[in-house]
Each structure stands twice: as C-alpha cells, then as structure tokens.
Design goal:
Layout lengths: L8 H8 L7 E2 L11 H9 L13 H11 L6 E4 L2 H12 L3 E6 L3 H9 L3 E6 L10 H8 L6 E5 L11 H9 L4 E5 L8 H4 L11 E6 L12 E4 L3 H10 L7 H10 L3 H23 L4 E3 L6 E6 L6 H9 L3 E2 L1 E2 L10 E5 L3 H19 L1
Parallel strand pairs: 1-11, 3-4, 3-5, 5-6, 6-7
Antiparallel strand pairs: 2-8, 7-8, 9-10, 10-13, 12-13
Protein name: Aminotransferase class I/II-fold pyridoxal phosphate-dependent enzyme
Keywords: Aminotransferase, Pyridoxal phosphate, Transferase
InterPro entries: Aminotransferase_I/II_large, PyrdxlP-dep_Trfase, PyrdxlP-dep_Trfase_major, PyrdxlP-dep_Trfase_small
C-alpha cells in the first residue's frame, strides 16, 4: 500500500472482502463533503465537450483560479495534479543544496534525490509542539548556500502553518527559491496563511496547490502552480504536454473555484469537525495531541500501551483506516494521524478509540 497518499482503498477493500464505501478512510485528508454540485452539474451539462479539444490557453480556467487566488492569471501554471508541478519545478531549478522542513511529505525528497541535490532537513520538534520559530528558520536557511527551501503549509503531518506575513519575512530575508505546497491551505484561514497574494511581488516564490483534498476531486488530476518568474514559467510550460488538462477537469475547475457556497460551507463544517476531534482526542490520557491548521490531526500514543501500527490494525477491524506515521522521518512508531470525516464518522472513531483504550485498561 502507498505510504504517501493514505491507504490504497482498492487493495484494502479486496483484502477485507468489503466495498470501498464500507471503509471510513481517516487517512486520505479528502473533503468528506465531496465535490461542488455546481461543478458536477457543469460536467453533465457540457458532456458533449469531450468531442472538442480543450482551449490550449485555458483562459477561463486560469481566470477562475486568478480570481480565487488573488494573483495575476499570467502567473498561473497548470499541471496534472500538484505532484507533476513539484517534479517540474525541482527539475528546472536543479538545486545543489536544499532545505526541507521536516517531517513532511516524502515526494519532495524523492524529487530532490533525482537531481542529486544535497538535502538539509530542518526538523520541527515535538518538545516545541512542532511549531517553527520563523527567525531561527531564516538563520538556518542563510547558514549555507541553499538553492531552494521547500515548505508544506500547513505541514503534513504536523499541522503547523506559517502565516503569510511570516512567509513574507522569509522571502525578504533570504535569497533562495521558496517552494510552498499549499495542498491543505483551504482547510484553514487562507487570508491569514495563504501566500498566493505574494506571488506577483516575489519572483523567488513558487506556490503549488491541488484540487484533490479541499475540492474533493482526486480523480480529475488538476493542480496549479503560481510564480512570477518568467524563466520558470516558460521552462515548465515547455516541459508540459499541450492540452495537459483534460476538458472535463477544465470545466469542473472553471466552476468550482467560483462556487462560494461550497467553499464557505466546506470551510465552516470542517473547521468545526476538526475542533471536535481535537477536543475529543485531547481528552484521552493516553494521547498527546498536537494543534493543527490542516484538516488532519497528529497524535502520539504517549502511554506507549500499543504502537500506532497495532492501533491501525485494531481499527481496520471496525472498518476505520488511520495513518500510521512511523514512515515520516522524525516521528516514531507511536505517532498516528487522522483527518476529519462526517460528524457521525468522527464520533464513531472516538467511540472506537475509547473502546480500545478502555478495554486495554481493564
């Protein structure tokens, strides 16, 4: 099973003899409310567009993203998911020395290794509740000749997030490229934490977003990057295939970025559910729960009664899937991560955890 994108539901459901819909996937971090109804209706209404090539300039899609992110449409790059843009950017920059804020998503390191880049990891630490001091981070960046700094904001799996003012401070006090993966930014206060508004002013900034998580559309493979560096834009566009975004993904994107009701409802509902899970998980004497600005929560089994892998297996028996975080460098076998699902499912998770740890005490 993939250790990068949560559980492989196809594989797991086959092994358990279950339908995928019978599994409660707390490992995927995907919006449990699904995707925009308006966007899905747009697909239905325009289904005959599959017989027409997409607009190679993707004017309408870029306009929709531009208004949504508050940046120039000229500074938008489109990719088949965020991972394609991560790979393209690193390949073009071809860095010799990188700073990777860790623990974090493993794909960054894989792509850096491909270009033979030396990686220095700046670890957030549990004794600091995984919070990062921006001044210390800046000093670390400037301590060597780093070509690139990679930040997942909010960070997966710790949930820590820099504010956009802190990102501005990093940009103003360093001379390196800053790549910010905002995959989970829409689950928090974007006006406070998102860096998209900085793109037009700082050409050393590259912001990447996907639509899989917040917009609940991993199946359409739509991602986008934002940069005002003309050379990078030209280089990435030259690497990407013509019509790399299919017609249906383009139509869906044009609509869902403008669906204010979906965006507002998702943000409010999932923030409420995250706070519910934070409070409930924190009530367990066995857990140390870390604050999160994402739609997922990192917890540690501080009692060490069982390992996270053992907890995962016990919960699978209840059709619940959590993320064992041992594979994240800097975390050990007692860390696990859960995302927010529906309130009913969140309640069932808490009840199941209570049953496991109460039974263990008996």
């Amino acid at each position: 099973m993939s250790i990068n994108h949560g559980a492989n539901l196809y594989d797991l459901s086959n092994k358990l003899g279950l339908n995928k819909n019978e599994l409660m996937d707390f490992s995927s971090n995907i919006n449990p409310l699904g995707s925009s109804k308006l966007a899905k209706q747009a697909i239905i209404d325009n289904i005959d567009m599959v017989s027409i090539y997409p607009d190679p300039s993707y004017f309408n899609l870029k306009t929709s993203i531009s208004n949504y992110c508050h940046c120039s449409s000229d500074n938008i790059l489109l990719g088949s998911g965020a991972t394609e843009l991560i790979s393209s950017f690193i390949d073009i920059i071809n860095p010799k020395k990188a700073v990777l804020l860790s623990p974090s998503y493993s794909e960054y390191e894989k792509e850096l290794i491909k270009v033979n880049c030396h990686i220095n990891k700046y670890f957030s630490k549990k004794e600091n509740l995984f919070k990062v001091d921006v001044n210390d981070f800046i000093n670390y960046i400037n301590s060597d000749n780093h070509d690139i700094v990679i930040i997942c904001n909010p960070n997966n799996p710790t949930g820590f997030a820099f504010t956009n003012e802190e990102i501005r401070k990093i940009l103003e006090n360093t001379n390196t490229f800053i790549m910010i993966d905002e995959t989970y930014i829409e689950f928090t206060n974007t006006s406070k934490y998102s860096s998209t508004r900085l793109v037009d002013d700082f050409n050393k900034l590259f912001v990447i977003r996907g639509t899989s998580k917040f917009f609940g559309t991993p199946g359409i493979r739509l991602g986008y990057g934002l940069t005002s560096d003309d050379l990078i834009k030209e280089s990435i566009n030259n690497k990407l295939d013509l019509w790399n975004i299919n017609t249906l993904a383009s139509i869906m994107g044009e609509v869902m970025f403008k669906d204010e009701d979906f965006i507002k409802n998702s943000s409010q509902t999932l923030t409420k559910e995250r706070e519910y899970l934070l409070n409930e998980l924190s009530s367990f004497d066995d857990f140390m729960v870390y604050h999160s600005d994402g739609n997922f929560i990192l917890s540690e089994i501080k009692s060490k009664k069982i390992k996270a892998s053992e907890l995962r297996e016990l919960l699978i028996e209840k059709h619940i899937i959590i993320r064992d975080c041992k594979s994240f460098e800097g975390l050990d076998e007692y860390f696990f991560r859960v995302c927010t699902l529906s309130h009913k499912e969140n309640e069932f998770l808490i009840k199941s955890l209570n049953d496991i740890f109460t039974k263990d005490e008996e």
